[in-house]
Amino acid sequence: QVQLVESGGGSVQAGGSLRLSCVASGDIGSNYCMGWFRQAPGTKREGVATIDSGGDTSYADSVKGRFTISKDNAKNTLYLQMNNLKPEDTAMYYCAAGRSLGMTAKQALTIMAAFGADFGYWGQGTQVTVSL
């Protein structure tokens, strides 16, 4: 059984930075897309950033140039470096891993966000709050 545990969320002022981490326990295999997704109250879950098994990445337009996704396979850890945070980044952030099934990192942004826990493994989330 795979478990994903996120950490690193918190409260920051606009312009600040946070780094989220997601540690995966269990064997998720070698052909998975992993990513970060977020959901604010009253809004739909959206894809923030994804990375496929080959290392290709994709980002939501709203975070391009500010957020960076990376993974350390030796540590089974996924990261999201978030810089120049804005109040609209406030949300619960979730780490997820889903079988690639030929899916590109860009496709994973929308497909995994749409299916949620029906597609792969999801963590419990970590809250990010950005204030002015």
Question: Keywords, please?
Answer:
mainly beta; seven-stranded mixed β-sheet
Report on this structure.
- It is built from 1 helix and 11 strands, in the order βββββββββαββ.
- It is mainly beta.
- The strands form 2 sheets. Strands 2, 4, 5, 6, 9, 10 and 11 form a 7-stranded mixed sheet that branches.
- The chain is globular, with a radius of gyration of 14 Å.
- It starts with a strand and ends with a strand.
- The mean pLDDT is 94.
Alpha carbon gyration radius: 14 Å
Name the helix and strand elements from N-terminus to C-terminus, one letter apiece.
EEEEEEEEEHEE
Structural class: mainly beta
What helical percentage do the residues reach?
Answer: under 10%
Assembly form of the protein: single chain
**Low-confidence segments:** none
**Termini gap:** 41 Å
Question: Strand fraction band?
Answer: over 45%
Number of strands: 11
Silhouette: globular
Count of DSSP-assigned helices: 1
Concise synopsis of the structure shown:
With 132 residues, the protein is mostly beta strands. Helix content is 8%, strand content 48%.
List the helices and strands and how they pair.
Layout: E1 3-7, E2 10-13, E3 18-25, E4 32-39, E5 46-51, E6 57-59, E7 67-72, E8 77-82, E9 91-99, H1 105-115, E10 121-122, E11 126-131
Parallel strand pairs: 2-11
Antiparallel strand pairs: 1-3, 3-8, 4-5, 4-9, 5-6, 7-8, 9-10, 9-11
